[in-house]
Design goal:
single chain; about 500 residues; mainly beta; 5-stranded antiparallel sheet; 1 helix; globular; disordered N terminus; disordered C terminus
Length: about 500
């Protein structure tokens, strides 16, 4: 057998960099040992983060605020330098937002329907935990409301329960391609009877050109078919995209519907507003086995079962929905979905459609199932006005303690932190804010001990008696990656 040449340390480091992509790599400290055994992997800060943001609105009277933020690190990595920028998703686009330092949010504004989708990257000390948010307010018209969404990392697979093609609804999938090659996208719609098919639809092989965005109306995928509750599955055949759904409903308002967390046997939908007038749960089973779900609301005093809606049966490959009238009863809570039979945890995806107000004063929002905050998570755009920002923290299975930090505002202020203990099966609602904060600020949650914690922030910006709002969930920012340490004796890598 032909013997391979020994690998140099530089070659190993280059190979690891290719595998981890964005990891920060340094030569390992072996403590003088050279026994040929691989050292344990270590957690290291990412060196580059990539985000994409959808085009904010088609309304000429839309006012959009962009906010970007990187949490301050206890110890700076590398040389302590970094750079970040968000720019239009077009070739030769100019930067819209360029943050300069960790721990301080930076904002920009846009007006009208010409504001583009954005792509951007952060490097060095600005990369770990880099977060960006767009919040749009439309005062009048069919698309009136407050629309908020976090910019996301591009991917290849997205689930959107709670979409619709019913009369009075306009749901659009926004696809943004940050790369230099075209992306090819498929979109499938699943209603109460399964996969919705149409010979006239163009749901397959949708091309998204390099450094560009594309908007697809879900109604055009199944012409003539009205689905009150459906689930959209967005996948790529080639490349990757950022994907979000923008919803406008006649007389009810508009908002973004983010993707649900990946299919799982148990789900948490955190931060349903205390004054929700209507809560509609939509769930879907991607696999081949039906799911029977137990429904509970994690309220401030403990987990309770909604009267008359103790369980939900979801057939495989079909979308199921249920109205949960008067679910919160004046207290912010989180919906917990668990298997009715603990031995049969069928993976599902889910989201809730939430309506506040009544009559002509209704406003629409969505809460998708989300994963735990993990080590750390951030939502970038929060407002200092009284009761404008409400943070909901949920511990579904075990007591937990977290640290909540409100950053300075974009126009000044000092950061403020507090430690919060959440009892198992409960939701705590807080109104954290920086000291003397002015302008938009970021909220960062760090898990200190105990079980998993799920979180969401409700931002309320009332207008002429309408309780305009949007809910953003927190997701682990994955600011560090696991990097195997190379052994000092590299002969073990040869044959």
């Amino acid at each position: 057998m032909k013997q391979r040449a020994p690998l140099t340390l530089a070659a190993v480091t280059a190979a690891l960099a290719a595998l981890t992509g964005i990891a920060s790599l340094t030569a390992p400290d072996t403590g003088g040992k050279a026994d040929g055994k691989a050292a344990a992997a270590s957690r290291m800060p990412v060196e580059r983060s990539l985000l994409v943001c959808p085009a904010p609105s088609s309304s000429d009277i839309a006012d959009t605020v962009y906010t970007a933020f990187t949490p301050a690190a206890a110890k700076a990595s590398g040389d302590g330098k970094g750079a970040a920028r968000l720019l239009g998703a077009t070739k030769d686009a100019k930067p819209v937002l360029e943050p300069k330092e960790p721990g301080k949010p930076f904002g920009a504004t846009a007006t009208g329907a010409e504001a583009p989708a954005l792509t951007g990257s952060a490097e060095g000390v600005l990369a770990p935990g880099w977060t960006a948010q767009l919040t749009t307010k439309v005062s009048v018209g069919r698309a009136r409301g407050v629309l908020g969404t976090a910019c996301t990392a591009p991917g290849t697979d997205f689930w959107f329960p709670a979409v619709s093609t019913a009369k009075g609804r306009e749901d659009f999938v926004h696809l943004t391609n940050p790369d230099d090659a075209a992306a090819i996208v498929d979109i499938k719609l699943f209603g109460p009877d399964g996969l919705a098919k149409s010979d006239a639809g163009t749901s397959e092989s949708i091309r998204v050109d390099p450094k560009s965005s594309r908007t697809v109306s879900l109604a055009t995928l199944v012409p003539g078919t009205q689905l009150a509750d459906a689930t959209a599955h967005v996948t790529t055949r080639a490349g990757r995209v950022g994907a979000s759904v923008q919803v406008a409903e006649e007389g009810v308002g508009s908002d973004w519907l983010p993707a649900s967390v990946d299919p799982a046997g148990s789900l948490v939908l955190p931060g349903i507003p205390a004054d929700a007038a209507s809560v509609r749960l939509v769930a879907f089973v991607p696999g081949e086995e039906d799911a029977d779900l137990k429904l509970r609301l994690a309220a401030p005093g403990g987990a309770i079962t909604p009267a008359g809606n103790e369980q939900l049966h979801v057939k495989a490959g079909m979308t199921a929905s249920v109205d949960l009238a008067d679910l919160t009863r004046g207290e912010a809570g989180s919906l917990l979905l668990t298997p009715a039979d603990a031995k049969k945890a069928t993976p599902v995806v889910a989201a809730v459609r939430v309506v506040r107000g009544s009559g002509a004063k209704q406003e629409l929002g969505f809460v998708p199932a989300t994963g735990p905050v993990g080590t750390r998570a951030t939502v970038a755009d929060n407002r200092p006005e009284e009761n404008a920002t409400v943070l909901s923290l949920t511990a579904p299975s075990a007591d937990a303690k977290v640290k909540v930090t409100a950053s300075p505002g974009t126009l000044g202020g000092e950061p403020a932190s507090q430690e919060v203990t959440i009892k198992a099966g409960t939701t705590q609602a807080l109104t954290p804010a920086p000291a003397g904060g002015k302008g938009a600020y970021a909220l960062t949650i760090e898990t200190l001990s105990g079980g998993p914690v799920h979180a969401a922030r409700t931002l309320s910006l009332p207008h002429e008696g309408i309780s305009m709002f949007t809910v953003q969930t927190f997701s682990d920012d994955h600011s560090t990656v696991s990097v195997p340490k190379a052994a000092q004796n590299l002969s073990v890598l040869t044959r």
